[in-house]
Each structure stands twice: as C-alpha cells, then as structure tokens.
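In response to reviewer comment 3 from the previous cycle, which asked for concrete evidence that the modeling workflow produces usable outputs, we include below a single protein chain processed end to end. The sequence was submitted unchanged, and the resulting structure tokens are shown without manual editing.
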Amino acid sequence: MKVKDLANALMGTVYSQGNQNAEVLNGIVGDLLSHVMGTAPESAAWVTIQTHVNVAAVAVLKEMPMIILACGREPSPDLVDRCGKEGICLVSTPLSAFGACSLLGSLGLKG
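The workflow returned the following structure tokens.
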C-alpha cells in the first residue's frame, strides 16, 4: 500500500508529505525507541505517541517511510523538520494507537 493511501485513510493531519508513493508493507506500534529499533521491519508504518526528533532517527535507521502519531498528538517542530528532510511522511491521527493499528490491519498490513 502506498503512503498517500494510508495518510488519507487515517483521517488526520499530515505534517510532512514524505515520499507519497513509497510502499508500506508492514506496520509496527511502540513507544520504546530501542524496542522499535530492534524489531521494526523495513518499509513499515510506525504508530507511536512519541513526538520528539529521535523518532525520525529511528525511522531513518529502519527505512520506515511513515510515522503515525496516535491520539491526535502534535509533533515537535524538530520532528516535522527532520521528517521533511528525510522524506518521511508524518501524520497525526485522532485514532488511538489501537484504532490506528486496527485500521492498518483492515487495509492489509501485517504486524
């Protein structure tokens, strides 16, 4: 599934467009950065409530094209800037983390 399709489905605010045509193959949820670093597959959409710039560093390391901020969380300006520079789509959704993951699963992404 393409980033642009997921961004539309999440009914949220896009803070960084990223590569709208990048393929998302999997999903991961987590707020402990070291755990996500150790377990996230490449090409995943990451659901988190963390809003600081280190989130982008983990996404870059794991080659994740999309970060989804659950619960309507607003990103720090540093996170928005870094995602823009790295070509990562950054979306905030009003859905809970569970709701966002449920939606991703219903769209065919695997965890």
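The chain has one domain: 3-106. We consider this sufficient to address the reviewer's concern, and the full set will be provided in the supplementary archive.
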